[in-house]
Structure formats: structure tokens, C-alpha cells
Design goal:
Length: about 270
């Protein structure tokens, strides 16, 4: 049971309706404690202006979404490295708790999954090296295995933490329940991550049936994820951060009045999370 100040709004949840400025005002109006912008919204507003507005609103920035996408060319390119360094700079300027990484899948026409994973690890090492100098933490978001080809070839908490073990300080995981709720090893891996490496916690729900595996995420309480159980595991692992609500919903929540969306989030946080 979460009070609104324990909730952060991932701007993807109302991305079709609101600009970042409107998201910031909406968070204040509904008493939310934090925000997690996407880079397109951030750049649209202007990073410096956004940073000022977020600070003035007293919101915690639970993350910046997102860096990564290392594998599009099948190898690590200077352009991809540079873009991730810019993402680090943006995360630093808005004071984000972490830069969330969606690492990329297979390059067009490739079947080389181990090769893609090697490119990802090299890319993360490069970004991490720069991020350490800027005081920014890097959070790998493992994506559900159904996205291994086209979005992210890091697919479990355990796999992400193995990478963190190899890369060392300053890198951890963004745990999104939509991607990992099914994993029989989830509780153990949350504990393994611990408070230093469990850098973000994203919530929504898994609908049955799911009409679209990218854009039909459910509002908390409308699906099958035992959110209080998972929240308990996160707390046992030492996670004390905000719960970030991230709902991609082309047919439902993106079509509603965004104030209704935020009011529903607050109500569900209190009753089902
Ligand atoms: Zn997420």
C-alpha cells in the first residue's frame, strides 16, 4: 500500500497526452513524489529548463529513459557511444537516480545472439566509464525474452547482474515487473542485487489476454502480477526508492484524460500495490 509520495510517474504512461511540463505539473497536482522522463520529452522541453522545473516542483528523478541500443549496427559505433554519453550528461543535469539502459537486440539479418550480448557488454563498459566521471549510475533494464531479437538481449535479472559483477562499481539493474514477474529466480536475484544495485523499480500489470506485447500493459490491479508480493521482495532486498509507474497502453490509458490516469494510479497504489 503506497502513498502518492512513494510513486514516480514514468512519462511514457501519458506520453500521448502530455508534454514534460504538463507531466511535472500533473505530478504536483496529484501529490506524486517523483518523475522519470524519456529523452524525447526532455529534449523537447530543453534539458536545463526541465531540470529547473523538476527541482522547483520538488520531484525526485527516479531515472532517465533511456540509453543503450548498442547493437543496431552489429558492432559498437562512435555514434552510439556518443549518444549514450549525451544521455549520461542529461541524466546528470536533471539529477536522475540512474540512466536506464535498454541495451538492444540483434542487428538486422543477424542470428548472432552471443555476439550481440558481447557488443552490449562492451557498450555498457564504455558508457559506465564515462558515467562514473559524471557521477551518474547506470541501470540495465532486463527486458522480457520476447524482446530479445528487437529490443534487448539482456533478459533476466540474473543475466544483468552477471554483467554488473563483471563491470564493477556504478552499474546495477532497473527491475520492471512487466519484464521479470514470471522469473522463478526473481526473489533471489533482487536479494543478490541489494540496495546498491537495485536502482529502479518499475510497476504496471500483465493483462490476460494481452492484445499487444509492447503497447498493452495494464494498470496496477487489472492483471495477474502479485504486486504486494514483489514489493515485499524489493523491500527485503533493501530497496527504498519510489515505485515508478510505466504503462504503455495504446488502446486504453493513452486514450484517457491524463488527470484520470494519475488519479487512478494514486488510487491503485493505495489499494493494490
Ligand atoms: Zn521499465
Amino acid at each position: 500500500m503506497l502513498t502518492p509520495d512513494r510513486i514516480s510517474l514514468n512519462t511514457a504512461t501519458v506520453r500521448e497526452q502530455w508534454s514534460l511540463a504538463e507531466c511535472i505539473e500533473g505530478c504536483q497536482r496529484h501529490g506524486l513524489g517523483g518523475i522519470s522522463p524519456w529523452r524525447d520529452k526532455l529534449q523537447e522541453m530543453g534539458v536545463t529548463k526541465a531540470a529547473q522545473a523538476i527541482r522547483a516542483a520538488g520531484l525526485t528523478v527516479t531515472g532517465l529513459c533511456r540509453g543503450g541500443w548498442y547493437t543496431a549496427e552489429g558492432r559498437l559505433t562512435p555514434a552510439v557511444k556518443d549518444d549514450n554519453r549525451r544521455a549520461v550528461d542529461e541524466a546528470a543535469e536533471i539529477g536522475a537516480d540512474c540512466l536506464v539502459m535498454v541495451v538492444g537486440g540483434l542487428a538486422d539479418g543477424s542470428r548472432d545472439l552471443p555476439g550481440a550480448r558481447a557488443v552490449v557488454e562492451d557498450g555498457l563498459a564504455d558508457t559506465l566509464d564515462y558515467a562514473r566521471g559524471q557521477g551518474v549510475k547506470v541501470a540495465i533494464e532486463p527486458l522480457h525474452p520476447m524482446y530479445a531479437a528487437d529490443r534487448a538481449c539482456v533478459n533476466t535479472m540474473g543475466q544483468a547482474l552477471d554483467i554488473c559483477d563483471r563491470l564493477g562499481e556504478g552499474i546495477g539493474v532497473a527491475c520492471d515487473v512487466y519484464h521479470v514477474w514470471w522469473d522463478p529466480d526473481l526473489k533471489a536475484q533482487m536479494r543478490r542485487a541489494g540496495p546498491d544495485r537495485l536502482m529502479a523499480y518499475h510497476i504496471c500489470d500483465w493483462l490476460v489476454p494481452t492484445r499487444d506485447f509492447l503497447t498493452d500493459r495494464g494498470m496496477m490491479g487489472d492483471g495477474v502480477i502479485d504486486l504486494p508480493l514483489l514489493a515485499g521482495w524489493a523491500a527485503e532486498a533493501g530497496f527504498e526508492g519510489l515505485h515508478e509507474v510505466e504503462i504503455f497502453s495504446a488502446e486504453d490509458w493513452w486514450r484517457r484524460d491524463p488527470d484520470e490516469v494519475l488519479a487512478t494510479i494514486v488510487e491503485r497504489a493505495a489499494n493494490v500495490c
